[in-house]
Amino acid sequence: MYVCLCLGVTSRTVAEAVAAGATTANAVAEACGAGSECARCRRSVRAIIDAAAAEPGSTEPRPG
Amino acid sequence: MNIAEVYRHSMVIASDYRIPDPSRVWPLLERRKDGLADMGAHHVLIYRSLTEPGRVLVMIGVRSREPVVDLLRSRVFFDWFDAVGVEDIPAVFAGEIIDRYELIEAAPDDPPGVLVSGIVSVDNAAWLISELHSAKPTFRDAGVRKVWVFQAFDDSREVMILQEIDNADNARRWIRQHDEAAAWMADTGVGVYPPLFIGEFVQMLRINGEQ
Question: Boundaries of each BFD-like [2Fe-2S]-binding domain copy (chain A) (predicted)?
Answer without folding.
Answer: 2-50
